[in-house]
Amino acid sequence: MKTTTDFQKMKANGEPIVMVTAYDYPSARLAEEADVDIILVGDSLGMVVLGYDSTIPVTVDDMVHHTKAVRRGAKNTFIVTDMPFMSYHCSIDETMNNARRLVQEGGANALKVEGAKEVCYTISRLTAAGIPVVAHLGLTPQSVGVLGGYKVQGKDLETAKKLIEDAQEVEKAGAMMLVLECVPKQLGEMITEKLSIPTIGIGAGNKTDGQVLVYHDIIQNGFGHVPKFVKRYANVNSSIRNALEEYRNEVKKRAFPTDEHSFTMKEEELLSLYG
Ligand code: KIV
Ligand code: NA
Q: What CATH number does the domain located at 4-234 have?
């Protein structure tokens, strides 16, 4: 399994870091087989696999449950788990206990928190307790209500300056890595140059130290809105739909199952069964 030291080295060597989300055993297993560097158990699972319309309803219990499944599927991959909405804006004791559960029960190697100065104390406390922390800036979906929608962040001088400062603050607080979501590519590049920790972009251009995408977006398996920054590498929805329709039609026509998928018993036993 790669470690924080490896990610630091990858940044130094200019080797891109590949991160992908996974929420369950099969997706985690396939991600590990594809040799990705990091799996993110993102709270995007609320929208992608639980059918909520934001990440707000996702709980610590949900994240523990899904992290456990991902860990079973990817025993040798570094797993980052999102701390869900309001699970790290409560008292520090409660925050530490939530973090403990995600690591100890869930099996996460690191935790991700959204935000800047307001989470710096939490980042330092978690790091001091031995939990590596990934920061998340730019479009921070847990604050969608405050941001007023899912939009590109840091497009003007004022907000760009603030983002650069925020990035430097979370690094100073001890973050091991920074996810930058939905920012202009020039800002993605600038922040990547200014920081000594690796940056992972999603909609942040090609110059960040790594990239992350949502598993279901990559393979088109699901029903969420697909943002501009997503590239689709397969269409699993249509494969599944075709398979399910074919199954349905074959059952309706009694074309399934044939002998190939049936079991038989010996003739004499059948006769005595009839008596
Ligand atoms: O929850 C998630 O999938 C994320 C990534 C989009 C970075 O936070
Ligand atoms: Na997230």
A: 3.20.20.60
Domain spans of the chain, in order of start:
4-234, 239-274
> 12 CA to middle of ligand 1, Å?
24
What is the tens place of the pLDDT at every residue in 15-58? 999 999 999 999 999 999 999 999 999 999 999 999 999 999 99
Whether residue 181 lies in the annotated active site: yes
Task: Give the length of the chain.
Answer: 275
Rounded alpha-carbon distances, angstroms, from residue 200 to 40, 90, 258 = 11, 27, 51
- Global model pTM greater than 0.95: yes
Q: Is 202 in the pocket of ligand 1 (CB under 6 A)?
A: yes
